[in-house]
Amino acid sequence: MVKTIGNPLSWSVGALEGAGRGASHLAERLGGVEESGVPVVRKIGTEDLKEALRRGVEDFAAFRSDVVAICLLYPVIGGVLVWFALDRNLLPLLFPMLSGFALVGPLAGVGLYEMSRRRERGLHPNWGDALAVFRSSALAPIVMLGIYLLAIFVAWLFAAWFIYAMTLGPEPPASTGAFLADVFTTGAGWAMIVLGFGVGFVFAVVALAISVVSFPMLLDRDVGLPLAVVTSVTLVARNPWTMAQWGLVVALSLALGAIPALLGLALVVPILGHATWHLYRRAIDFEAPNPKPNPDPAPE
Fold it and tell me: What are the b/e assignments for 267-299, b being 16+ CB within 10 Å?
């Protein structure tokens, strides 16, 4: 049979049909299916975090050349943020940009979760399998959750600029040296630091709560976005101290990875990404029976 290229009208009709099927599939995927069951949220502790990190390091060792090649993108992104802040005279937003990058970190680790998932099943994945997420049926809820995290990141930048305007601003700093001097030698500068860390902490807690196990769960099970987010929030609420430790580990690791010109992120990000998958596996159980409320006693 002879194949033809078609014409603009047929292209348009085909595109509309594809968009319609995609919208229908998106609605189904965001809601999930009931067959996946209701997850049981476990009580976890420091030993679970250590085990997740240990297995994250093992995965990194197994995928070292593949994940480093992928994760070199993160220092590049960080460098672009630095250049943008300096070039656009947005020096007060430089630290909020770099620290806020952690808010969308769970989205950046989706490919790493997929590699750990496949290795756990006895497969031998490579960097190409990380890109398989783009062909996954879970792509729609993953993208939607990623948009939520990006919205939190943008809101954090607006909040950081408002704090600067209320303390050292609203005029842009004359130079980097003058800005650093004002930050560390004036009362307004210290007020900006305290307010910035306080408000940033709130944004970090929100991002952690809604995403700490949401992305791995969406890849692992045919669940909807609402259930994934609720489960993630429940995990944080049930294990506040343990998840605070996890948040501290992530923050300190990213800070250390950023010190050598951001290049350390190519090492830190994959380890944290793989460890997040194993944290999900230790914290969430779909196989355990879900406790049900006692039925009402029969009338006498």
Answer: bbbbbbbbbbbbbbbbbbeeeeeeeeeeeeeee
Ordered alpha helix ranges (H), the chain? 8-31, 46-71, 73-87, 94-100, 105-108, 110-120, 127-130, 139-167, 176-185, 187-211, 214-220, 225-238, 240-258, 265-283
Measured between alpha carbons, how far is 105 from 199 in angstroms, rounded to an integer?
Answer: 19
- Alpha-carbon gap, residue 85 to 101, rounded angstroms: 14
**How crowded is the C-beta side of 213, counted as CA atoms within 13 Å?**
29
| Pick from 134, 130, 133, 149: nearest CA to 68 | 130
Q: Could you give the residue ranges of the DSSP H alpha helices within 32-138? A: 46-71, 73-87, 94-100, 105-108, 110-120, 127-130
**Cα-Cα end-to-end distance for the chain:** 77
Residue 294's identity, in one-letter code, is N
pLDDT in tens, the chain (300 residues): 444 444 444 433 343 344 334 433 444 445 554 455 678 899 999 999 999 999 999 988 887 655 665 566 666 666 676 676 666 677 788 888 878 777 887 887 788 888 888 888 887 766 666 666 777 777 888 889 989 999 999 999 999 999 999 998 788 887 788 888 888 899 998 999 999 999 999 999 999 999 999 999 998 888 888 999 999 999 999 999 999 999 999 888 888 877 766 677 777 888 888 999 999 999 998 775 555 444 444 444
Rounded to 10 deg, the angle between the 225-238 and 139-167 helix axes is 60
How far is CA 44 from each of CA 64, 179, 232, 270, rounded to the nearest angstrom? 28, 43, 13, 23
